[in-house]
């Protein structure tokens, strides 16, 4: 949720459950402006909230040069003091995060132990050895960082054309972007994932006949597996507003106003992946 | 002349600083233009081309072109280093029309320059490609001079806007010509007013049972405080929609239940209690239907003897084409060698009956709508089976009430039934209030609620009697009650409420059976058997016309059976009762079933709202502020699962016909030699009888066939 149209954006996320109370909104908006100023970010966004048992985590991110590569994530428990989220690299932690059963506690320093799934190896000739399930020690701060990263990677959305790749490879919001029009809004191929593209550039370009190098380098959401089931697209408010909800991470909501550059996503949820998705259609 | 044109350029373009650098070179080469000869041939063309370009770019440039046109005749002499000539050649190159789009670079560049100067976008150089693409794209848009009504596509929002206006039932014709229509309309208005008044009169006796807060806009204030932040427009529409529902004559009270997201559309849900008359009229219908359903199949009136399938004749035996030569009578008398065709067997199956309308799970009716301008649709009643199955599955709602629910185990019903079951379960699980906020009805109120007219003085005595009588039943019926707001409830400080201990459930728990009040299925089964036995005997007797002696026997038997029933009385299933504490809530999936949040932590101590969030049903919230306590649900309608839902596995394929190892005996295929030997053997067998007696020609039908076939093979 871009800080520039914070309140308006909040309103546009129709009926997506509990959002922010007035006090939280004021605290967050103003403290994020301060944060942006301190860090000299050229863009500042509220990412969302992860519900925890004691205290909820509020997540925000900002960028200076490149809005995909050098995003910096912050979290806050009290809605006005923001701490940098650690950068997680270890695959073990990601693995443990996806497997963790317990809800978040609300204390970043708390340690939990997560039992990974047992590993299977083919030892010799048709002999399968079962590895003892590994127990990983997981700090909640790391878990938070990992879950934020995973959710952003999998279902953060922007409309096509909102991000622009410059000739030097930087990606910045497109100031020429003036929104999708009537014919484009309800088509999932006009929405892109807000992440560094994973598909090959050629693959992404070849999906469209009117491709455009600086715009179509991102992956579109209609190619997210399970195809056609990962997102639910709705038109709201006299069909002037698009709301896309992720079915994989319930709580991730994206909005875009037709014919305006306003768009944004917000995650309000408990950080649980919907692993039953394939059975739910 | 060239000088002139240059000057025109620089004057025409008001704000370009770059162009200021241009005039000096032009000035230095003042005299050269006069010597141009070849230029004439190019420049008039150029000028024509230029004037024919798009409106946006031609203004400044065409002026220069016109100038050159005017001075056309003067220029005569040509000299090799001629700037004008070079410029024109360059121009001509740029103005070459594309064979694909019919566009040319010169126009495009001048468009871009004009746009940049007019609009002055920041950092154009960084987005030059995008900017240029935009400019080109806009060229294909309809120019402004095109009549706007020539092509007018209906705006997407128009349909919705019309719907919304219609739903508000505005008096369109009031200013219209026909006064009759207007009068009619007033007349109708008068009627509706009367009806409303009538309704209120009816309500007066029920006024005390109105426990719902019907005012959406009032609640909106609290919702906003809590952070639901539904926009004011939506709330107003919601209020209008609910008003439409509320003025309906069969509805006593209604409240906004919440919103369940669907894939294509979400559902706005309103909870309502029906008026007593409505309930009674529906109840009568429902009771009949239920009675019929609980009857043993053989006793049902609508039961039809299914005719046996027509003869299983030769068409079912193999080789129909070989049978033309036989008469039909003969064929009918033949018996196929195959096993009989299995007939359908009726299996008696009884569902646990749903609770009647107005009690238990069906105490409240639910109305849903996809968009607030539509008409409300009532959801059907919920059956125990639907509740039970809905616990085993997890589906996305699509937004279409008639959509099929494809699941295992098979859900009995459409999406509306599933939605209704989910609503019932969520309501039962998440509706809470502080201790003492609600109270049970007194006996008197209960009777008033059930519509019995009390007569002042006798009440108390009756009450006492009732208490005596009902004590036994109370234990079981305990849960299925409607609670009333406790007038004596004192607002408690939020600090003392910020713990689940201070909260109680205010809606009846749904048992595992899928009902609020436990239904003794075993007993019902026995009763059915008894009824069936009796029924069969009655029919026998009718047929035989025997005397009454046996009936007495029957009665004796019945009594015996009843005793048996009492002995085999199985323990009724129990769950947490209504008004049980939230501190006792248990969930195997999550340790803390309730989250407690306050809307402001740091300031505004006096106007804080306390919010209870359910973890078991993410999306269910209850807030309390002083004496206002309301619950709302905004979510997907899914129960919480720590990792994933333990779905039932599909059974093995064709489980009902199990195969043992001995059913399939493996054997190796016969070799060619073996087959040949077998054929030999067959032939020799056929030859023997033929050679024994040629007079034996009356073979069995099949044998005859076989022999014919074989002879053909040979």
Automatic annotation (TrEMBL), chain A:
GO BP terms, alphabetized: axoneme assembly; cilium movement involved in cell motility; motile cilium assembly
Broad class of the protein's primary localization: other
A GO term from the CC aspect: axoneme
Domain of life (superkingdom): Eukaryota
Keywords: Cell projection, Cilium, Cilium biogenesis/degradation, Cytoplasm, Cytoskeleton, Flagellum
Annotated signal sequence range: none
Protein localization: Cell projection, Kinocilium; Cytoplasm, Cytoskeleton, Flagellum axoneme
Family stated for the protein in its record: Belongs to the flagellar radial spoke RSP9 family.
PANTHER family xref list: MITOCHONDRIAL RIBOSOMAL PROTEIN S18, RADIAL SPOKE HEAD PROTEIN 9 HOMOLOG
Protein name per UniProt: Radial spoke head protein 9 homolog
UniProtKB/TrEMBL annotation, chain B:
Keyword Cytoplasm: yes
Pfam families: Radial_spoke (PF04712)
GO CC terms of this entry: radial spoke
Ranges of biased composition (kind: Acidic residues): 451-477, 547-565, 694-714
Segments crossing the lipid bilayer: none
A biological process from GO: axoneme assembly
Keywords from the UniProt entry: Cell projection, Cilium, Cytoplasm, Cytoskeleton
Location(s) in or outside the cell: Cytoplasm, Cytoskeleton, Cilium axoneme
Segments of this protein annotated with the region Disordered: 449-477, 547-583, 687-714
Polar residues biased stretches: 571-583
PANTHER family: RADIAL SPOKE HEAD 6 HOMOLOG A (PTHR13159:SF0), RADIAL SPOKEHEAD-RELATED (PTHR13159)
Protein name: Radial spoke head protein 4 homolog A
């Amino acid at each position: 949720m871009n800080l520039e149209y914070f309140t308006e954006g909040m309103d546009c996320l129709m009926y997506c459950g509990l959002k922010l109370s007035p006090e939280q909104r004021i605290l967050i908006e103003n403290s994020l402006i301060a944060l942006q100023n301190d860090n000299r970010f050229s863009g500042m966004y509220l990412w969302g909230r992860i519900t925890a048992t004691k205290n909820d985590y509020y997540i925000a991110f900002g960028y200076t040069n490149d809005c995909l590569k050098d995003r910096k994530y912050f979290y806050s428990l009290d809605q006005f003091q923001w701490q940098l989220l650690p950068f997680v690299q270890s695959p073990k932690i990601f693995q443990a995060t996806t497997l963790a059963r317990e809800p978040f506690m609300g204390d970043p320093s708390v340690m939990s132990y997560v039992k990974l799934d047992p590993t299977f190896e083919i030892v010799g000739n048709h002999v399968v050895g079962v590895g003892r399930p590994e127990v990983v020690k997981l700090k909640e701060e790391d878990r938070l960082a990992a879950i934020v990263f995973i959710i952003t990677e999998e279902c953060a959305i922007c409309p096509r054309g909102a991000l622009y790749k410059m000739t030097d490879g930087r990606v910045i919001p497109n100031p020429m972007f003036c929104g999708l029009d009537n014919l484009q809004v309800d088509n999932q191929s006009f929405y892109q994932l807000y992440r560094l593209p994973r598909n090959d550039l050629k693959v992404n370009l070849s999906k469209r006949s009117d491709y455009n190098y600086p715009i179509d380098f991102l992956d579109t959401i209609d190619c997210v597996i399970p195809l056609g089931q990962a997102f639910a697209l709705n038109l709201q408010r006299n069909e002037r507003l698009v709301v896309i909800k992720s079915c994989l991470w319930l709580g991730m909501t994206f909005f875009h106003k037709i014919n305006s550059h306003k768009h944004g996503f917000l995650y309000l949820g408990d950080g649980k992946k919907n692993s039953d998705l394939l059975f739910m259609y | 002349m060239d000088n002139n044109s240059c000057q025109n350029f620089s004057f025409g373009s008001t704000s370009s600083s770059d162009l200021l650098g241009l005039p000096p070179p032009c000035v230095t080469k003042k005299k050269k233009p006069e010597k141009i000869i070849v230029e004439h041939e190019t420049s008039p063309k150029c000028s024509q081309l230029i004037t024919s370009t798009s409106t946006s770019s031609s203004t400044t440039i065409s002026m220069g072109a016109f100038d050159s046109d005017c001075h056309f005749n003067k220029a005569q002499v040509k000299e090799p280093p001629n700037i004008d000539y070079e410029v024109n050649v360059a121009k001509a190159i740029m103005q070459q029309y594309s064979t694909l789009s019919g566009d040319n670079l010169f126009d495009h560049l001048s468009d871009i320059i004009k746009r940049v100067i007019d609009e002055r976008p920041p950092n154009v150089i960084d987005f030059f490609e995008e900017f240029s693409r935009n400019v080109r794209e806009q060229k294909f848009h309809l120019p402004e001079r095109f009549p706007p009504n020539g092509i007018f596509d209906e705006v997407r929002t128009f349909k919705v806007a019309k719907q919304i206006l219609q739903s508000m039932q505005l008096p369109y014709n009031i200013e219209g010509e026909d006064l009759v229509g207007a009068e009619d309309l007033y007349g109708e208005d008068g009627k509706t007013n009367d009806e409303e008044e009538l309704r209120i009169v009816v309500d007066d006796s029920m006024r005390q049972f109105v426990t719902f807060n019907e005012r959406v806009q009032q609640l909106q204030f609290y919702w906003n405080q809590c952070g639901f932040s539904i926009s004011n427009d939506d709330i107003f529409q919601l209020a209008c929609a609910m008003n439409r529902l509320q003025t309906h004559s069969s509805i006593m009270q209604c409240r906004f239940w919440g919103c369940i997201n669907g894939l294509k559309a979400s559902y706005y849900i309103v909870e309502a209690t029906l008026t007593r008359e409505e309930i009674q009229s529906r109840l009568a219908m429902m009771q009949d239907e239920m009675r019929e359903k609980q009857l043993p199949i053989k006793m049902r009136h609508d039961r039809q003897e299914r005719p046996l399938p027509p003869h299983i004749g030769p068409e079912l035996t193999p080789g129909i084409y070989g049978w033309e030569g036989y008469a039909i009578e003969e064929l009918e008398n033949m018996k196929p060698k195959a096993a009989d065709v299995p007939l359908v067997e009726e299996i008696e199956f009884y569902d646990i009956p749903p609770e009647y309308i107005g009690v238990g799970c069906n105490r409240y009716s639910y109305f849903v709508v996809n968009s607030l301008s539509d008409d409300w649709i009532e959801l059907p009643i919920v059956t125990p089976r639907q509740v039970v199955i809905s616990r085993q599955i997890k589906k996305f709602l699509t937004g279409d009430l008639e959509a099929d629910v494809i699941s295992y185990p098979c859900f009995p019903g459409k999406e509306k039934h599933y939605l209704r079951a989910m609503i019932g379960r969520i309501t039962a699980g998440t509706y809470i209030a502080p201790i003492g906020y609600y109270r049970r009805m007194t006996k008197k109120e209960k009777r008033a609620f059930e519509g019995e007219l009390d007569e002042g003085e006798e009440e108390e005595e009756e009450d006492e009697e009732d208490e005596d009588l009902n004590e036994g039943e109370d234990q079981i019926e305990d849960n299925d009650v409607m609670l009333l707001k406790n007038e004596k409830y004192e607002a408690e400080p939020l600090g003392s409420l910020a713990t689940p201990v201070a909260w109680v459930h205010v809606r009846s728990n749904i048992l595992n059976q899928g009902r609020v009040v436990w239904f003794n299925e075993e007993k019902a089964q026995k009763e059915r058997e008894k009824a069936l036995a009796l029924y069969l005997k009655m029919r026998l007797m009718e047929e035989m016309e025997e005397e009454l002696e046996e009936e007495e026997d029957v009665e004796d038997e019945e009594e015996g059976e009843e005793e048996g029933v009492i002995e085999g009385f199985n323990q009724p299933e129990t769950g947490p009762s209504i008004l049980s504490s939230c501190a006792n809530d248990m969930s195997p999936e999550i340790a803390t079933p309730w989250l407690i949040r306050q809307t402001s932590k740091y300031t505004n101590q006096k106007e804080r709202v306390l919010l209870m969030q359910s973890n078991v049903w993410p999306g269910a919230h209850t807030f309390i502020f002083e004496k206002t306590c309301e619950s709302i649900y905004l979510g997907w309608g899914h129960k919480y699962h720590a990792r994933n839902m333990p779905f039932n596995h599909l059974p093995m394929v064709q489980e009902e016909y199990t195969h043992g190892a001995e059913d399939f005996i493996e054997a190796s295929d016969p070799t060619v030699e073996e087959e040949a030997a077998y054929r030999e053997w067959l032939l020799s067998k056929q030859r023997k009888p033929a050679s024994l007696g040629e007079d034996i020609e009356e073979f069995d039908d099949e044998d005859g066939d076989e022999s014919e076939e074989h002879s053909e093979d040979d």
